[in-house]
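ok here's MFS transporter, seq below lol
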Amino acid sequence: MTTQTTVGVQQDSKAAEPKFNLVRWMAGYLAFWIIMSIGFAMVSQVLLPQRIKDLGAENPTAVLGTMTAVGSIVALVANIIVGALSDLTKSKFGKRTPWLFWGAWFSLGFYFLMGNIGIIAGLTLVLWLSKIGFNMMNSPIYSTVSDRVPEQYRGTISSAIGFGNTLGLAIGAFVGSYFVNSVRFGFTIAAICMFVSAMLFLLIIPREPGNKNEKTELKEGSVWKHVVYSFTPPVKGASDFWKAFCCRTFLLLAIQMLAGYWLYICQDYIGLEKNAAAKVVSMIAIFQMIASIVAMIVGPLSDRIHRRKPMVVLSACLAMIGFAAPIIMPNITGIYCAAVFVALGQGIFMSIDQALNVDVLPSKENAGKDLGFINAATTAGQSAGMALTSAIVTATGTYDYIFPIAIAMSVLSIISVLLIKKVR
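and the structure came out like this:
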């Protein structure tokens, strides 16, 4: 099936797909986000931290923080470049599909390699390379919301993304906790999850219309200059865009300050040994699964009442309760309370966040490029959160300070979203 219309423009997309099959699209997004997030969480929350310890790192917290900090820069650059280049891609499979397809293969290879490298330097290099494959999948997936999902369904689709992401992260942490004594095999399972997620998405959703014959106008006259242009942040009419960017960055940074370190927090903050800490992480995952189900209602509710901001404020407030729990109760009970409220906050935020981001895009024609910037906030927030925790713990020798700092970040996210004018 081919067409000469521009897929990136919603009106043309509707012409190619006159009837939007909401159930089919939700199934595709759920399949991708649940399975991909399982693989991602297995690695980021359990396998990578444990692998670093198994390889004899003297200061595992500092090593993990450094690896993820540099990895966030790689991911940020990759996300922006992939988003811009996918806007220009012309093929019989469309502009996003080729990137998603090859990103799945790269992710499969790099995730498998991470479990089979026996030195920290090699593990670090492969982790950074895996960020390229990961963003070759993520950037096109996010762009499909702008390209092909009608506005009246974006809250519902965003809810499916948030539900799938939260549930997948929970399952991944739960499953990963059972591989602390067989990390290599765990990495193999995670690699397969990354690959299968993308392939299922492409099989389930309607095939992307081909755009091989469409004319592409380069902003700067050549592909190379367009890549350079892709690093030019949106300015005209982009005030709300950057407020949404700040909101996402602050809140995800705060959440990841804890989420990336649950295993270490259980071991070093409340004094559990490895296997006991792994059991707590598996229980945390169960709480996250329950939270993801609760969060699933938020997107459709947002579409019905035509409100985005109240949902974001609620998510940040719930997360703040979670951040305060370990301060009040520095024990397993406090950790479980933190897990419940942080998971609820994260689930609600992720279920509405993508709809908010698409609503504040300053330009439809540059959707891939601009979403590359705002989606970089996800990577930056997640990786920078881990790096910030690492720096704080390395400097102070304790996890005591990460909780109040996470609360402060959440307050900044609330301020950012309340300042948005275009969306209610």
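fwiw The CA atoms of residues 221 and 288 lie 48 Å apart. kinda neat tbh
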